[in-house]
Design a protein that fits this description.
The structure is a single chain. It is globular and about 55 Å long. Helix 6 links the parallel strand 5 and strand 6. The protein is of the alpha/beta class. The longest helix is centred in the middle third of the chain and has 23 residues. The chain has a domain of 223 residues: 3-Layer(aba) Sandwich (Rossmann fold), CATH 3.40.50.720. The strands form four sheets. Strands 3-2-1-4-5-6-11 form a seven-stranded parallel β-sheet, with helices on both faces. A two-stranded parallel ribbon has the order 7-10. Strands 8-13 form a two-stranded parallel sheet. Bound molecules: uridine-5'-diphosphate.
């Protein structure tokens, strides 16, 4: 098992859960985060959990002088630092592209120079509008036009994948790529647009659940505790290096059905409202109609995959948000 783990973006939602898992396994963890969407409260909880094995560095993953020494003293790197959340990505496209591409280049340079294996967190967004369901890792990516900011996010993360594989091919970097599908759980903020914390909060307050579009678009939701187990497993698995893996759950649900499920599990009589996309995100927005991963590659590599069911995920969120 790799012992000293360096996590960029480790104060964020997924990063802090992953850091917690590694600390509980007895590993040493260093987190680099600029606290743009990451939170100091997450860092403080990690510090309290294992003060002698946890270190926090506040800074940007785009800065080579900050990143290189931290990478060099680690046994493995997990690169999660990125602009995330559809709302943030649409509202701050320059920040999104610069952060995602710049930080990835910096981290790849440092990891290849130091000979340290790397796990790169990509996203299911790279499949774009593909209708070849379920999505398999070698399928074509179908992105929309450059005039639509959302596709810039997908392109920036796909560029990161190409860069990571290029460093693998040309500089022998041991890199594993994960495409994270919708991941939910405690500590995720609805502020950046994510649907489930917003629905649960609205249901608990008796406010309307705002379903964008016609609500027939679908997603698959995985619990963050399952996802971090997979990420840890892939990081420790040398045979996974050089490959791309979908990571998530593969049980498909429409967003309208999700809203109904949240109300049922929460025992809420909140109204469910259909809100036009233009009102939610402004004009020129495109959504993905369906998004379902094939988990065959993941299961073949690890022998397991995320399993927590939707009702349990919703119930967990109700517990922490109530
Ligand atoms: N969505 C919604 N209401 C919200 C937030 C999101 O209906 O308050 C929809 C959104 O349009 C998308 C789905 O829920 O179709 C998932 O959105 P999210 O931003 O959580 O993740 P995405 O899968 O789009 O990255």
């Amino acid at each position: 098992m790799l012992h000293r783990i360096f996590i960029t973006g480790g104060a964020g939602f997924i990063g802090s859960h992953l850091a917690e898992r590694f600390l509980k396994e007895g590993r040493e963890v260093t987190v680099l985060d600029n606290l743009s969407t990451g939170r100091l409260s997450n860092v403080k909880a990690l510090q309290a959990l294992a003060p002698e094995r946890f270190r926090f560095v506040e800074g940007c993953a785009t800065e080579p002088n900050v990143v290189a020494p931290l990478v060099a003293e680690s046994d493995a790197v997990v690169h999660l630092a990125a602009a995330v959340g559809v709302r943030l990505v649409v509202e701050q496209p320059i920040h999104t592209m610069r952060t995602n591409i710049g930080a990835t280049e910096t981290v790849l340079d440092a990891a290849s120079a130091a000979g340290v294996p790397l796990l790169y967190a990509s996203t299911s967004e790279v499949y774009g509008k593909s209708a070849m369901l379920p999505f398999t890792e070698n399928a074509d990516l179908v992105l929309g036009p450059t005039s639509i900011a959302r596709w810039g996010y997908a392109a920036s993360k796909a560029t990161g994948e190409w860069m990571a594989l290029a460093y693998g091919a040309e500089r022998d970097l041991e890199v594993t790529i994960v495409r994270l599908f919708n991941t939910v759980g405690p500590r995720q903020l609805g502020r950046y647009g994510m649907v489930l914390p917003n629905f649960v909060k609205a249901a608990l307050r008796g406010e309307p659940l705002r379903v964008f579009g016609d609500g027939q678009q679908t997603r698959c939701f995985a619990h963050v505790k399952d996802v971090t187990q997979v990420l840890g497993g892939l990081l420790d698995e040398p045979a996974a290096r050089g490959s791309v893996f979908n990571v998530g759950n593969d049980v498909e649900v429409s967003i309208l059905a999700l809203a109904e499920r949240v109300c049922a599990v929460a025992g809420s009589d909140s109204e469910i409202q259909l809100v036009p996309y233009a009102e939610a995100y402004g004009h020129g927005f495109e959504d993905m109609r369906r998004r379902v991963p094939s988990l065959a590659a993941l299961e073949a590599a690890l022998g397991y995959r995320p399993r927590t069911g939707l009702d349990e995920i919703i119930a967990d969120l109700i517990c922490v948000l109530a």
